[in-house]
Amino acid sequence: MRHHLVLRVISKMLIPFILLFGLYVQFHGDFGPGGGFQAGVIFAAAFILYALVFGDDQARQVIPDKALILLVPLGLILYAATGFYGLILGGNFLDYNVLLDSPKAGQHIGIFLVELGVGITVAAVMISIFRAYAGRTRAIDDEDW
Amino acid sequence: MTNWLHHIPILIVAVPLISAPICVLFTFGANRKAAWLWTLLVSWFAFLCAIYLLNHVLENGEISYHLGSWKPPLGIEYRIDLINAFVLLIVSGISAVAIPFGRLVVDREIEPDRQILFYTSYLLCLTGLLGVTITGDAFNIFVFLEISSLSSYVLIAMGVRSDRRALTAAYNYLILGTVGATFFVIGLGFLYMVTGTLNIMDLSDRLMQLADNKAVHAGYAFIIIGLALKMALFPMHVWLPNSYTYAPSLISIFLAATATKVSIYVLLRFLFTVFGFSFDFIPLTLTFIFLPLAIIAIFFGSIGAIFQTNIKRLFAYSSVAQIGYIVIGIALSNTIGLAAAVLHIFNHALIKGAIFMAAGCLVYRVGKLTTDSIRGLGKEMPWTFSALVLAGLSLIGIPTTVGFISKWYLLLGIMENGWWPLIPLIVIGSLLAVVYIWKIIEVAYFFPAPPDRAPVSEVPIELLIPLWILIGCNFYFGIQADITIGIAKEAATILLDNRP
Lengths: 145, 500
What we know:
The complex is a heterodimer of chains A (145) and B (500).
Chain A: H1 5-27, H2 36-54, H3 56-62, H4 65-88, H5 103-134
Chain B: H1 8-24, H2 32-60, E1 63-66, E2 77-80, H3 82-109, H4 115-134, H5 138-157, H6 165-195, H7 200-207, H8 214-230, H9 239-246, H10 249-274, H11 281-306, H12 311-332, H13 335-366, H14 377-380, H15 382-396, H16 402-417, H17 422-446, H18 461-479, H19 482-497
Antiparallel strand pairs in B: 1-2
Helix pairs in contact in B: 1-2, 1-4, 2-3, 2-4, 3-4, 3-10, 3-13, 3-18, 4-5, 4-10, 5-6, 5-10, 6-8, 6-9, 8-10, 9-10, 9-12, 10-12, 10-13, 11-12, 11-17, 12-13, 12-16, 12-17, 13-15, 13-16, 13-18, 13-19, 15-17, 15-18, 16-18
């Protein structure tokens, strides 16, 4: 999409804000609306927009496939590891109360870590799904637009 | 200090769950043999946990585990009584013998660079099935059901290397399985709307007073239809034959022995524990819908099996028929009949596990499994075929096999209800099984091998050991049936206890 100047400029301007909003939804999710799933989708939307405007190849340079294969399981591992850490500290699985000294702080850090895990996995899975389809057919030539 | 034994109920699900993403990380550096070994260790761990849980439940009664220490009914509860401890044992036990069998056949049937992801999906499928069984939260059942179903669609589609029809089979299963799961969750939505709870015990308490509520009736209908689709009860079985036929051998073994059984367990749970005969048309659905469908399933499945030329497909049709026997046991809704259903869940897992393992051995040597390709193989692969014949005898229900035990109890249950016309139907169903088993014996032992075929040797010992372990179980639990009958009877009593 080399000739679409407006699209390129606007999306370059938008992408940082999309990422920032994604991070806001992620980390403010335990106080307000939002959470890991929504944040992951918003975060992935920024990368998908980038891939749509600047091409799949360039997007692959930003996040290589190898990194995605690493990130998808990593989020889930973070989630489950939080659960297991609670077990080791003497609580039940996914018991956040025992994570820190006070139960309130424990609940906070617990939900934070779990939602972060969800966010990482969802974002990586969304980009992977997009890539699985985008990588299938030849990109449309500029002349065909 | 953590008392780890107290956490076994969650570990049996959480360990397979976390091992799946760890297995993906094996793509960085480690080889596919490590992924297999990892899956093997996890399966055996789950099996040990299941044995511990069953023992614990037998000695001390129900276990209730609260996730995140939130008390039920607000928090998610894992509740283990004799029935789900028994089903957990079946699922993890089959996995524990299937994975040692799996290494060679997976190497043969799956592209090398996909094997690690294959084992990952397998672990997820195992997690899902164990989770459905162990949880005491209705929505959790849906979530785990979807984990196991989504991964089994992937696993079936991986049969594509041997036969491209695996893709359409997986797609078919994807559509129908999703319809089933959606119906199930819509039904749960109705129940939640009326009761405001998802905990199974709490649901069952609250539904007692809501027998006349139309939304509850609608929810009941949705849940029953959704589960009937998942367990492949005739006429909702159409996804099953192709899925089992074109799936990789390991997956045919695992799914045929466990997946539909777990759905039947959920059906039992909802019919007897959740709805617990709180309104009158539950017995009516059992007698006038389930019973006729089950009888048709037996005949349709068995006659369908007789006309198949692909051996895996033949046994897939026979699975449709066997579901019919289990559902007859449920429809009887007396203690003996339900015990027969629970017994047959276990026994059929042993039978079909052994049969599909033998089929896996044949695929390993011959490739395509048509009746033509196994002509005269009985002499060349004596161990595989004798195992297939013994498992076939068990499927027919010859005394000293597990198949006999479940059919015997089914007949006892029928007599208790006085439904005499059913008895000849069951006997004819078994005779039809003789026909399709004989068909294979005839081709394998009495037909000459085609002269242009290169000699076929017996499969490696690594494949024969798990196969013969399952055959051994078929006879051990057929002769020493006290253990399984005891558990099944007690399970049936627990299920029926809720009836007012």
